[in-house]
Design goal:
The complex is a heterodimer of chains A (291) and B (268). Chain A is mostly helical and 291 residues long. In chain A, 81% of the residues lie in helices and 0% in strands. In chain A, helix 6 runs parallel beside helix 13 and helix 10 runs antiparallel to helix 11. The termini of chain A are far apart. Chain B has one domain: Rossmann fold, CATH 3.40.50. Chain B starts with a strand and ends with a helix. The chains are: A mainly alpha (291), B alpha/beta (268). The structure holds adenosine-5'-diphosphate and magnesium ion (MG). The site of magnesium ion (MG) has 3 residues of chain B, from helix 1. The site of magnesium ion has 3 residues of chain B, from helix 1.
Amino acid sequence: MSAPPSFLRERAMAEEAGLRSRHPDAFRAHWRRRAGVVGGLGAALLLFVFALWDLDVSWGRVIGGIGRLGEFTELMFPPRFGTVERLWSYLHALVETVAIAFLGTLLAAILAAPFGFLAARNVVPQALFHFGLRRVLDTLRSVDTLIWALVWINVVGLGPFAGVLAIMSSDFGAFGKLFSEALEAADRKPVEGVVSAGGGPLHRVRFGLLPQVLPVVASQVLYFFESNTRSATIIGIVGAGGIGQHLYEQIKILEWGHVSFLVLLVLAAVFVIDAISARLRFAIIGQRTGV
Amino acid sequence: MLEIDDLTRRFGAKAAVDAVSLSVTPGSFVGVIGRSGAGKSTLLRMINRLQEPTGGTIRFDGRDVTALRGQALRDWRAQCAMIFQQFNLVGRLDVLTNVLMGRLNKTSTVSSVLRLWNDSDKAMALAALEMLDIAGLASQRADSLSGGQQQRVAIARALVQEPRIVLADEPIASLDPRNTKVVMNALLRINKHFGITVLCNLHSLDLARSYCDRLVGMASGRIVFDGTPEALTDDVARDLYGLEAGDVMDPVHDAGRPQAAATAAAAA
Ligand SMILES: Nc1ncnc2c1ncn2[C@@H]1O[C@H](COP(=O)(O)OP(=O)(O)O)[C@@H](O)[C@H]1O
Ligand SMILES: [Mg+2]
């Protein structure tokens, strides 16, 4: 299907030399950019190969191991919990895990809120201050929950309290940064409306920024709660309370039926939290009027 | 009486508003016209002090408002209500709360932050909304409204500020012809009924001619015309919009909307 020769096409062809000389940039091949893309891909490939070699990845071991993986899977069925007392202690641990995640997330969010405001350029227009605070938050954020758990266990001893503190510490930095970014991404126009009507600095934040930012922040907190339920399972393994402890013990004594039962419990909990938080998120960002 | 003297605002080397002097008598409806980039918005925003002047003074009833700070500045802002092209409402809040923003300056910080408004403030807000025929929307979220409705909410917010002046920065530039008429008529009404001075930036010459009793023409940050709509001859208008400079974009743009101009003229 060939298009009929158009006026524009004819004109462009007749004028091509002129167009080329008037707009040299548009016709220049972007060798630099192309070289960048090719170079980048090449570097990524090299890194991949290097990693395979350096980490001693041996396909033979993987294939040999698959058989054992199959055996474990078989041993996992049916999932079982032994005695009813055991069941209760598992359920109790699950509730503890969810509680650790909930408290840790909530404390992190509450603590991070004022820092998020201070770290936002459009709330505190102080470049140096805001740069310093950002780097502090980044530093806290870069330490993983598991490491925080090991630290807090040494400070407050084994148990769920250390777990709560661990989640709080690692998410504090992330929340601070996320909150401040949400504030900076907020639309300036409502703020200007409030200022033009004679509103003060507090009004600016309360009415111009907060209604815009709160739904974003709330849905981030809900996401973190979800993912922290999984983190709280892991930190249980190092002794920071919750269901992880049981999981670790059952793996050690090769009780695969119990392991699969515990995994299913965590799965169910995450599923339920996911469903609830999805509804909450929808309610918050939905059509109702904000705060 | 608003008196502007030698007012200048620079952005880098460029003067957006260049030594503008202007006095506005109370109760007048002044249209500020000119091409985009002429400095109209900057002029209005400096009066409300959303933008700081580089030089010159703004006086209101003899008082210099260019140097005001803190509470005095916020009081001044409440007195010269601003209406924006993009409405500048808080989209996620309901209409009534948006209108009550106009009372912030007269409400204690604690009660305003907790949204505990006075009954008398609420009554004012609802009265303003009724006047603009949108009281039925009071509990709706502002961002669920059409552009014309949102601009009326913004006008209601301006009214509850009990302002002496209303500064409108291209209030109809984002609206269709019908809403243009509704919004311009609302501005005309608050001018004629309440005697509030209106200073309105307009892109469209026909609208300016039909609604304003005085036109101020700006070009490159300077005032190049100041007089009645009748005095604005086609020659002057051509100068203002720089036809001679070979810039045909603006007139074409205006001619593309003859319907808006016609309906607005019919309304006035
Ligand atoms: N915040 C700003 N920073 C830099 N330049 C600006 C800013 N605001 C306005 N200007 C410039 O000042 C001139 C006048 O702008 P403006 O007052 O918005 O004109 P108008 O409202 O008549 O279209 C324009 O050239 C614009 O680019
Ligand atoms: Mg403008």
